[in-house]
Amino acid sequence: MLRKLYDWVIAYSSKPSAPWALGIVAFAESSIFPVPPDVLQVPMTLARPEKAWQYALIATICSVLGGLVGYAIGALLYDSLGLWLINLYGYGQKVEVFREAYAHYGHWVILLKGLTPIPYKLVTITSGFANYNLFWFIVLSVITRGLRFFILAAILHRYGPAARTFIEKRLGLVTLGMLAIVILGFVVAIYAF
Q: What is the 3-state secondary structure (H, E, C) of the chain?
């Protein structure tokens, strides 16, 4: 089944709607969706390495726009949707500690957590809840999300054929590793503060 899904994503990458799917996943991941855009960006870039930079740009722009939705959820809907999402990811008990960290280290929180596998939606929602400066939130989100997606694009562009061969020979192991990174991100988010 995993091989069929991988083959489908690789085949889907050549379709005109593939960049739209990447954009939708990147947008949703920054506010409500648990799946990171990397799961589409990696196979899409492996299938079409000449589009690595385009895919990174799409993921960056859509992630930042989705981050603004997450910020709005935190700022305007925290008591309903925001709190529910924070609790869903197991972070409800630590929101006040996170808000205090924002008061002292807001720039660093966004920069560091935006690059890591820690769910970015926690950063966006908490940024709104903590009333973090919107201008700096946007600037730092562009920097951190851009770095994340463009570094991935550079690695895949440079080592794409070798990476594709490695992934295709060890698809189960690579998938398990990516799943472990996502789970680690959630665990770190829960226990970081």
A: CHHHHHHHHHHHCCCCCHHHHHHHHHHHHCCCCCCCCHHHHHHHHHHCHHHHHHHHHHHHHHHHHHHHHHHHHHHHCHHHHHHHHHHHCCCHHHHHHHHHHHHHHHHHHHHHHHHCCCCHHHHHHHHHHCCCCHHHHHHHHHHHHHHHHHHHHHHHHHHHHHHHHHHHHCHHHHHHHHHHHHHHHHHHHHHCC
Task: Among 8-12, 122-126, 146-150, 189-193, name the most confident range.
Answer: 146-150
Cα→Cα distances 182→4, 27, 53, 139, Å: 22, 17, 23, 25
192 has a pLDDT exceeding 60: no
Sign for the CA dihedral angle at 72, 179, 142, 137 comes to positive
9 closest CA partner among 41, 55, 56 = 41
